[in-house]
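Reopening this one. Same input as before:
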Amino acid sequence: MSRLAKIARRIGLVSVLAAMTIIFAAPAFAAGGTLEFTSESEGKNNIPIDNVGIKLIFNGDVTSGAVWGANQNAFSLKGFIPDPEDESKTEVVNIPVVALPGQKENEENYILVLAEPEPIKEGYPGQLTQKTDYELTVSGGIASADGKQLGEDRVVKFQTMDVAANSKLSMVVMVLMMVAVIALMVVTNGRKMKAEAEAAALMKANPYRIAKERKITVDEAKELIEKAKEKNKKQLEKVGGKAPVPEPPKGAAPRLESRAKKKKPTHRVAGPKSALAAGSKYAAEHKAEAEKKRKAAAAKKAARARQQQGSGSGAKKSPSSKGKKK
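Same output, byte for byte:
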């Protein structure tokens, strides 16, 4: 065997051994490796202060079998609460958390970490502090079912929203929306009134006058009016307006759908009469009372006259009687 043949044979053996090594080592290499994850909350500054949940998506199965018992305790949350009197100072507060695995099928690589701050009072859930930095630490010991590990601790940083600023912004947006709605209503109402006024004007349009002003035929003027009415009709439908109802021509006799009303009978008076002559009960009673008063007055007058007459005759007898006695 020549020297070149021996060299070629050795090279072939080395190539085969290298290929076999790669083939058999591939599963072992795949079984190891590094565990990774991503989070939508990383670097966000608008996390709400209520019901905070941090989603973590891994590149391996971290919730199946025995690995979940260790993985669910691999999380811790810290908040850096600013001092209200000195913003440069912060207080580090540990926030209790609970880890939940994916609740749906094929979600073995999904973990939701929920923050559980101390309740405000009984019956009311706790809240995170607004406009505050928080850090969720994921332990490097977390592992997947195929043996991958995170290797070192990873931190997910986020910031809660500024509730006061958001409230002001929401109020401003609400005011702007109200102004926009009012403006839209004013514009729409203006268009509606304009379309209705135009419809009323077109209803009274005189084709003969238009023909004379524009120096066209009457038929052409009528055609222009019809086109304008059609355009106006579409505009009324668009803005929700209504065309005015045409009024009946002046001087037209109203249609009688029922029999004419009978005239009430009238009585003519031959001449003026008193209430007593007309048979008024009040007048008769008034007359009787007046007659009674008149008779009483006449009786009083007659009695007074008799009394005066009697007293006068007595005065005349007295001197004669005295003379006779003498």
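So the earlier flakiness isn't reproducible anymore. For the record, Residues 21-31, 320-326 have pLDDT under 50 and may be disordered.
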